[in-house]
Write a structure and sequence with these properties.
Chain lengths: 113, 112
């Protein structure tokens, strides 16, 4: 049973650039959530996608956008990168049924120079 | 606002001993879920245990158990027979709507 996968593992960008991160959910899951984890802190919720639509959004600017595809995989896009966007970006998948526990992928480490 | 507080930034425990990590939360909800996640240096966030607020019985998963005090809004994690592989950052999380709200984490070091 494949777990949540994310790509790439690491990424280095410069200020002002744009980045796209990718996530494939755990088998049987149809909901994808994205979190940003700054060094030494707990993850912060960015947004959640279900049925190809953004269902809930956290306190992040419009520079952060996403997409969910018919196969439930998802992308996180960040435009006009800032130094403060350097973080570990975690994807979590879940099913809307049952306990709705979120299972996390290994993350993408983004460094903005 | 929903908040989660982990008051212990760092903890240490000897191998084979028991350790308890503290967590308190603030909510006006009555039905909700609480979780403990573990994040080792490999950075993969791993689910340790979950608790449904409507269940009075404390959740248990092998060496991991919780002490859930709903009235006090407390959700502590007890690790028995600590192992070197338990060394990690532990996060307490509260499910609010569709999102998880995390505490700041507790670094646990298991010493041999």
């Amino acid at each position: 049973d494949a777990g949540v996968t994310q790509s790439p593992t690491h990424l280095i960008k410069t200020r002002g650039q744009q980045v796209t991160l990718r996530c494939s959910p755990k088998s049987g899951h149809d909901t994808v959530s994205w979190y940003q984890q700054a060094l030494g802190q707990g993850p912060q919720f960015i947004f959640q996608y279900y049925e190809e639509e953004e269902r809930q959004r956290g306190n992040f600017p419009d520079r952060f956008s996403g997409h969910q595809f018919p196969n439930y995989s998802s992308e996180l896009n960040v435009n006009a990168l800032l130094l403060g966007d350097s973080a570990l970006y975690l994807c979590a998948s879940s099913s809307p049924r049952g306990t709705d526990t979120q299972y996390f992928g290994p993350g993408t480490r983004l460094t903005v120079l | 606002a929903q908040t989660v507080t982990q008051s212990q930034p760092e903890m240490s425990v000897q191998e084979a001993e028991t350790v308890t990590l503290s967590c308190t939360y603030d909510t006006s909800e009555n039905n909700y879920y609480l979780f403990w996640y573990k994040q080792p240096p490999s950075r993969q966030m791993i689910l340790v245990i979950r608790q449904e607020a409507y269940k009075q019985q404390n959740a248990t998963e092998n060496r991991f158990s919780v002490n859930f005090q709903k009235a006090a809004k407390s959700f502590s994690l007890k690790i028995s027979d600590s192992q070197l592989g338990d060394t990690a950052m532990y996060f307490c999380a509260f499910k609010y709507g569709n999102k998880l709200v995390f505490g700041a984490g507790t670094i646990l070091r298991v010493k041999s």
